[in-house]
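Issue 218. Parser rejects a valid record. Input:
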Amino acid sequence: MELRHLRYFRAVAENHGFSRSARLLHVSQSAISEQIADLEREVGVALFDRGRQTIRLTPHGEIFLEEVRKVLAAVDRAVEMAQRSARGEIGTLSLGFFTGGTGTLVPRIVRNFRRRHPGVRVSIVEMVPSLQNGALLNGTLDVGFTRPLEPPFDRDLRSELLHPDPLVAVLPRSHPHAGGPLDLRVLAEENFVMVARESSPALFDRIIACCLAAGFSPQIEATAGVWSSAVLLVQAGTGIAILPSNLQQGGLRDLAFCPLKNRGASIDLVMAWAPERDSVIRDEFLDLARAHRDRKA
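Output the parser choked on:
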C-alpha cells in the first residue's frame, strides 16, 4: 500500500466519483479506478458501493476514510516539519559555557536567537573548557563558548574569536599593590593560586607565558578546579591569582581586581564547533554571533 492509494481513495470518497477526482488529480479515470481496486484487494474489504449513477462508501469505507485522513494529515505534518527543520525554523541547539567566561555578549546573542527562532529548543550546559572539546566532537554540544583550542582538538574543531578578556591580578584589599593597574613584575615573589590546567589549559598556559615574559616563573602555591575556588583561596590568604576580567564579581569588598599593564595580558573567548556536523540551526546561530561580535567591535 502506497500513499497514492490513500490519496486517490480520499479524493474519490470526498468527490463522490471517479471522473471528478481524476480531473482534480490530473490523472486518467481508469488509473484511479485501478488504484482503488488494488487498494480494496489489499485491505480485503469493499470500500465503495458502485451504482450505475453514483458511488458511495460502504460502512467499512467510512471507517477507513476517517483513518486515512489521519494518516495523510500526519504525512503532511511530517513534510512541513522536515521543511521547517531544513530552513532552521525548528530543532534543537545545545550551547556550552563556563561560569564567568561569557560576559554580557553571549547572553545577548542567545536571547536574540531565541526571539528569532522560537521553534528551536535551546539548551545551555555549564562545562569547563577542557570538557567542551570532547562534547563538541561527539555531538553533545553544537557550539561551545570556550578558550582557544589546544592540540589535538584544534585539528578537528573550528573556532572564531569573540573577544579578548584582559587579565587582572586578584589581590587582598590590604596588599601593598592593591589599587590601580600594575606590572606583573611586582608580583614575582608572591605565591600564586592558579586554575588547574586540567580545567582550562589555555588560561593556565597564558598566565605562565605572561609571567615568563615579565622575567619570572610563578611560585604556584595551590590550584583550583574553577575560578571561584581560586578567588576563595585568595580570600583565605593562600596567595594571589591572575584571572580574566570577566570573572570579576561584585560584593567581594575584601579583594582588589587590578588590571595588568603587561603587553599580551589577555585571554581570548572563542566560539567553537565541529565542522563535520552540519546543522542549519547551528550555522544560523554562528552567523548571529558574528553579527553581534562585529557590532561590538
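Fixed in the parser; the record now loads. Residues 59-86 form the longest helix (28 residues).
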